[in-house]
Design brief:
CATH architecture of the domain at 74-167: Roll
CATH topology of the domain at 74-167: SH3 type barrels
Strand content: 25-35%
InterPro entries: PemK-like (IPR003477), Plasmid_toxin/cell-grow_inhib (IPR011067)
Number of helices: 2
Distance between the termini: 81 Å
Radius of gyration: 22 Å
Protein name: Type II toxin-antitoxin system PemK/MazF family toxin
Largest sheet: 6 strands, antiparallel
CATH class of the domain at 74-167: Mainly Beta
Family: Belongs to the PemK/MazF family.
Number of strands: 6
Keywords: Membrane, Toxin-antitoxin system, Transmembrane, Transmembrane helix
Strand order of the largest sheet: 4-5-3-2-1-6
GO molecular function, one term: DNA binding
Helix content: 10-25%
Shape: elongated
Order of helices and strands: HEEEEEEH
């Protein structure tokens, strides 16, 4: 009776085990950042619901790379905490300054707050990369410090006239 097929079976099982371990290392390289740990879950940066992963099946990092760190005068989508309670929302914001791992931002909203005109600056429609092209409003009366890791997607530079109005806000 020929038993050489056992050797081939063992080789296939070992190869499958090695592939599983290597794949686990590639998916688990986030260092636990993707776990909830009491926070609300967040989607990956480039992957809305139902969208396939990048070619090769590997996840893209949810943190900006060093070359794409937020810079002053840029509009970014970031995970911004609610002002009146726990939790956070993915929303556009204007970066005012970056110091170390923290950026000071002014949040951007699509709601027009008529009663708060003094701290609200209207932005041109489409300036935040919104698919609907809605009008947006920069709220300058409540600045926030955000960890750089919470920045998800760069939209681009803010209009220079807007930047001239907000660049010297106390932060």
């Amino acid at each position: 009776m020929d038993t050489s097929w056992w050797l081939a079976l063992v080789a296939v099982v070992l190869l499958a085990g090695v592939a599983t371990v290597v794949d686990g290392w590639g998916r688990g390289s986030s260092g636990g950042r993707g776990r909830w740990r009491g926070r609300s879950p967040r989607r990956g940066p480039d992957r809305p619901p139902g969208r396939p992963r990048a070619l090769g099946g590997f996840r893209r990092s949810s943190r900006p790379s060093r070359s794409s760190r937020p810079q002053p005068a840029e509009i970014w989508w970031a995970n911004v905490p609610y002002e009146d309670g726990p939790g956070a929302k993915d929303r556009p914001c204007l970066v005012l300054s970056v110091r170390g791992r923290t950026a000071v931002v002014a949040k951007i909203t699509s709601k027009n707050h008529d009663e708060r005109r003094a701290g609200v600056i209207p932005l041109p429609p489409g300036s935040v990369g919104d698919a609907r092209g809605r009008a947006s409003f920069l709220e300058t009366d409540e600045l926030r410090g955000l960890p750089v890791r919470d920045f998800r997607r760069r939209v681009g530079p803010v209009d220079p006239m807007i930047w001239d109005q907000v660049r010297n806000l106390p932060h």
